[in-house]
């Protein structure tokens, strides 16, 4: 039952938990408009609709006081010079936070607020990241040949607002330059005002 204590193991190969209720698969086709290099995106999509990332979730009641949690697995690769990444989201309830614990790989969390503040934090095994309320966040895998695996937990009533990021983008991108990750301005970013909440897509 969902209102009883729950335990699971995340030490299995590939970071996949030994139990989960929901498995979300995001393919390249679901990321149209998110990457800056549209020509590279189109060429890659024409060749293969590859899986960019997956999310394994343990479903709990979506009510205040409960915590939703699971694992995110971002596969290695790039679209042009830009690393594979998640869509990124605000929480529909802006005043809610999220915690990430990196289990495997190396990556970056790109974050920003509706007011224009931004930050990029390193993700590596054993590192914990607290994403404060009001901060949009996106996981980026910057290591070739290895998945980026993170455990996440957030208030069950927080919800996800993907639409704001899909329309406006994030202010910063993470690209590879001279074999190293580099944070750069997003040339396609546009201001669409602060998010208003609502359902994700």
Report on the architecture of this protein.
The chain has 201 residues and is mainly beta. The chain has one domain (18-185): Jelly Rolls (Sandwich). Helix content is 8%, strand content 37%. The protein contains two helices and 13 strands, in the order βαββββββββββαββ. It has helices at residues 38-47, 163-168; strands at 22-27, 51-58, 67-74, 78-79, 82-83, 98-104, 107-112, 118-123, 128-131, 136-141, 148-155, 172-177, 180-185. A six-stranded antiparallel sheet has the order 1-2-3-11-6-9, with no helix packed on it. Strand 4 (78-79) and strand 5 form a beta hairpin. The longest helix is centred in the N-terminal third of the chain and has 10 residues, at 38-47. The radius of gyration is 16 Å and the shape is globular. Mean pLDDT is 89; it is low at 193-201.
Jot down its keywords:
6-stranded antiparallel beta sheet, 2 helices, 201 residues, Jelly Rolls, disordered C terminus, mainly beta
Question: Brief description of this entry?
Answer:
This protein has 201 residues and is mainly beta. The protein contains two helices and 13 strands. It has a single domain, classed as Jelly Rolls (Sandwich).
Q: Characterize the largest beta sheet: strand count, sense, and whether it forms a barrel.
A: 6 strands, antiparallel
Shape field: globular
Any idea what the CATH architecture is? Sandwich
Number of strands: 13
Structural class determined from secondary elements: mainly beta
- Proportion in β-strands: 35-45%
Low-confidence segments, given as residue ranges, are 193-201
User: If helices are DSSP runs of H or I spanning 4 or more residues, what is the number of helices?
Assistant: 2
Distance from first to last alpha carbon: 28 Å
Spell out the helices and strands N to C.
Answer: EHEEEEEEEEEEHEE
Q: What is the gyration radius calculated from CA atoms?
A: 16 Å
Mean pLDDT: 89
């Amino acid at each position: 039952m969902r209102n009883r204590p729950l335990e699971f193991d995340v030490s299995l190969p590939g970071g996949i938990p030994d139990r989960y209720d929901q498995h979300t698969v995001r393919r390249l086709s679901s990321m149209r408009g998110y990457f800056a290099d549209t020509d590279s995106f189109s060429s890659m999509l024409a060749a293969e609709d590859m899986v960019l990332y997956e999310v394994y979730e343990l479903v709990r009641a979506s009510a205040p006081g409960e915590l939703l949690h699971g694992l995110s697995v971002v596969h290695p690769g790039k679209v042009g010079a830009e690393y594979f990444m998640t869509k990124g989201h605000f929480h529909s309830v802006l005043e809610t936070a999220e915690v990430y614990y990196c289990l495997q790989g190396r990556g970056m969390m790109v974050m920003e607020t509706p007011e224009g503040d931004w930050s990029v934090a390193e993700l590596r095994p054993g590192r914990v990241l607290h994403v404060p309320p009001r901060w949009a966040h996106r996981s980026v895998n910057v290591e070739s040949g290895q998945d980026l695996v993170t455990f996440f937990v957030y208030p069950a009533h927080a919800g996800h607002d993907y639409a704001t990021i899909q329309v406006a983008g994030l202010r910063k991108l993470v690209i590879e330059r001279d074999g190293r990750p580099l944070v750069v301005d997003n040339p396609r970013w546009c201001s669409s005002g602060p998010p208003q909440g609502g359902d994700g897509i």
